[in-house]
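Lab meeting prep.
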Amino acid sequence: MPSIRQRKTDRGVPLALLQVASGEVQDGKSFREVAKSLDICHVTLYRFHKKRLRLESQGSHTPPRVGYWTPKKVFSTEQEMLLRDYLMEAADLYYGLSSKEVRKFAYELAKNYNCNFPQTWAEKEMAGADWLTSFLKRHPTLSIRRPQATSLSRATSFNRTNVKKFFDNLSAVLTKHEFVTQEIWNMDETGVTTVQNPGKIVARKGTKQVGSVTSAERGTLVTLACAVNALGNSIPPMMIFPRKKFHLFFTSNGPPGCIGRANGSGWMQEEDFLVFLKHFQSHTKSSQESKVLLILDNHSSHLSVEGINFCRSHGIILLSFPPHCSHKLQPLDRTVYGPLKRHINSRCDNWMKTHPGTTMTIYNLPGIVKSALPLAATPSNIQAGPCVEPGTSSSATPFSPLSIRPHPKAGPRKQTTKGRKRRETAVLTDTPMKDQLEAEKKRSNAKKSKAKTKINFGQKTIPNKKQKMQASSDEDEAQYCIVCLESYSRSKEMWLQCCSCKAWAHKDCTDGSAFYTCHNCESD
């Protein structure tokens, strides 16, 4: 790798001063006289004047080059800046180039624009690794990063049309209701698991595998719902546990004022969202005379008709983000939940080290969230999450990387009737949107009522089987529902068995499907 020469002195004569001195010499003065009067070296002036006359005799009006420069530089400074902008824009469009692709791209540019490049570039058909290293040093805004996997839906949905429509709705709501800073709230959920991602440790150098103890191979997820406002304040969170019934001891050691819910999946459901809205209203004291704005995503649980009716009667205006845009527009996702996950991982590591041989359960998570949440949901973090508008492409120039490798552009995605209905940003509490959701709810309930009349295969009642198992051996362990942990001996309901792990659960604790798979196997 070639060494980069570091300049150690500030000596040198500006070009403008040399041009003035050369003009005086051309008028008839001697080199030493002009050099002494301007305090410059007479040899430097002599060389500059000689080069200037030679260039003028060749018909060139470009002044001689002075100072330090790199004679073997492939691209000029302007060309490298264009290449730098192209690489940053490609990364912003989720189609960034790897280090090897950058080297191949640099060779294609140098070959297309007849730049003077080393012979080894032509032999390998790519730029050298030393050129890439020097290029990154000359442009410190670039670095080699490991990208985060981004789905095609997120990459295509975050566009100017969707974002503009959201800001139009936001502007209309702010103009109509004249909300102040403390009346604008944002809400989102995140998952907290019992298996942490271990942090870095100090270990023996050269060891290929370094381990750190975790609670289990796969964890159980608990949903955490938070709400913050534009002033930097927050309300106590809500935690949803993957259990059939909720007990108060679940959140006894959680954050002060937090509430809890439980359902079979541990995810936010419509009934849970209604409970969160009541919790939110009790802390914000919203009413028809003092309304607040709540911005949230388009999750199906947030489109509850009961929840929207509650918001309309208690002065809560609901505004939804565009679908698949929360990674750019959601303040909680951008600046709060990232630090929160890091603090939770750190505290989970400490918990495992202070409780050796003990398995962490979901009942230990509220205490960990209690100590981690105040460090993440700080006013500075909350206010540091502004909305980011999509970037625009650079204008065309004679040296254009886009002419060699244009950015990929996907056409409009096909509309299908399969899966969930495609949503868009909207004011959910407005009457047209509310009526639309009510109509969809009626159609959905009609389909479910028809589905209940069909025969469900794969169901079995196991009272006799349980009795035989208990009578055959006293050493057999009691059977428990893997969702609500209720013993079979206390239940006479119908049970379902997981197709993968062969564990049992109440039919009411599951989705009732013919081929039931428990939430632990689904997480794999």
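Slide two material, second protein:
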Amino acid sequence: MYCVHKTTMGVKATLMQLTVLLLMALAAADQALPGCPSTCGSVSVPYPFGIGVSSVNGKNCFLERNLNLTCKGSTLYTGNVEVMNIDNIKGQMDLNFFVANVCKVGYDNESTKGNKPRLKTAAFTISSTDNKFVSVGCDTYGYLNNFFNQKRYSTGCVTTCDSEEDMLSMQGNGSCTGIGCCHVDIPPGMKNISIRAFSFSNFNSSSDFNNCSYSFVVKNRNYNFSMDHLKHPPFHDGKAPMVVDWTIGKSTCEISEGKSNYACKSNSECENSTTGSGYRCKCKEGYDGNPYLTEGCKDIDECATKKHDCTSDKNCRNEYGHFTCFCRKWQSGNGRREGGCHVRTMVVVGVGIGFIIPLVGIGMLYLTYQKRKLKKLKEKFFQQNGGLILLQKLSRRENTSQTTQIFTDEQLKKATNDFDESKIIGNGGYGTVFKGILDDNKIVAIKKSKKVDGSQKEQFINEVIVLSQINHRNVVKLLGCCLETEIPLLVYEFVENGTLFDFIHTQRKINSETWETRLKIASDVAEALSHLHTGVSIPIIHRDVKTANILLDKNYTGKVSDFGASKLIPLNQTELATMVQGTIGYLDPEYMLTSQLTEKSDVYSFGVVLIELLTGEVPHSFGRLQEKRSLANHFLSFLRNNRLSDVVQFGIEKEENNKDIMEVAILAAKCLRVEGEKRPSMKEVAMELERIRLKEKHPWTNTDQNLEETQHLLYETSSNIYETGNSSNHQYSGYDSMKDHALVALDAGR
């Protein structure tokens, strides 16, 4: 008896499963052309996609050649890429695309082997909103290349790490923060893509725990970083899920409509692609189905599906494309009207109602007036703080995935306890910085700028534009802004360990371990400036590089901040004429004399930062003797006379690091050359500092051979270049306007 009952239950479950599968098959068949396969395995194949030709009339099962798919066994392919799902409503398709990799082979420390996945089809665009580009490894940089009109456009990211122990303490599992794993947003419109993964030094610095690099496009929320991925592939089958957008044709709706090959059928409407050429079809409101098939868009019965607002289902009448509500006899007459019908109610009339209604009306009018007044005031502040300029500049941006969050003044007041003075963490040349805690418990730094007048609007907006387009671990990230208050506000990531100026001059760290920390900070800042100069589509000159504008996080990672004076340099210009602006002691002498701003001006200022790290002294002080006022001149004089040890901060130089200190001093001298064109680029400076940091693992030739060059370059430097002004904190201020340009997160093609 028990066995029979159990068998009966099993048969019922099987019948239910078969019924569900049959209904799914019928629904899928209704989406394909007659005689065409409607599924491949568990994946539905809706028209305009198709597989081969129809068994009924021998015609193509697909609308266009690019939409012709292949079914092998139970797996669906477009070309050699596996298709996981097709969405006719969103115009998207889920693919399993190959992961790019490069791995160390052999033991000669020179050989690597890898692949270069490509997706070549003009019909599919990589979705910029549903995917991320990710690179995994500890000696890794990855590119996502887009080929269009025989030109290449690229984005990508870089990740390096020195040891597995550091990874465990700084990164951990689950998150991709830029150490061992980095990610960037994907610019809109990328198609015909290829992916490459590279190694900086053939994994020589990480071979004990990481021998391979991986780069891939992956659907959002479909990848979590794991430390295990440094030793094994992140996806066991070498493929990652990603989303592509698809369109029909290459023309717009307006051009295609009326032509014989127009794809949108009855009861449907056309919408142009927002990511490239072509268009898509969708059923009109009140209809559902496949808009690419004749009679594919079928009427929705709102009454049966309860998608109506009538008094009840019995008062609903379905019609093509919509519904109507009707009333029965007993529902007519005076009373409250609901869902198209009158509902009889008891009407109680009294003096109280006549008294309350006017009061409520007056109150509503007053609240409406106050709300409109507040709205107009916020609009006024928005315009006065440069909001229209910001919107205009953002509208001109192209190929960018970076967005700026707009905060309300209520949010930021709550985060800072109404900007309480106890929340102040710093004051700068352009405003006051408060520590704030948002509703999601995220700690941020909120910059309250000085009141913006007409001459400062574009300077303030320039900082918003510049920072919103930079995504680099050594640059303080701009999270958003608020322009609806009298004083404009900027919201940044919170960097908890103060400034490099405080680290050098207040904390007075002088032990050997701190030399390694100082060298790492210098390398971090050099990488950030190199990225600003060469890693974005339009170069950015910071123009106020100094230790007070370099922040340190809890791991003493250097982050460049305060971009209020920055300039974007158009690609057709190598220099820009501006009014001199910056901080005395760090200012490029060539820039001071000519007012011609170039990337080499930042190089000179960074050279001053290097000698500040070496000596522990401020760059310029009228309180010092005449010959010591300019730290640059003083330092170069001692270096020229082979007395470097006399000027290096006491306690920093040790036997094991004196060669490193000499090499950094030589690099600083190169940065301080008077003629800008003779200075190295920031990219060269960053590479040299990284070489010095890694020298213990990879010995290089003795630096003595560089001393002759050093002697030569030292005599090129100028003296008495800062004998003007009246305060060690004096700044040159000024402003000029320039043309706006859009940025992308990383232009690896440059």
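Talking points for slide two:
Residues 444 and 494 are 4 Å apart (CA to CA).
DSSP finds 16 helices and 40 strands in the chain.
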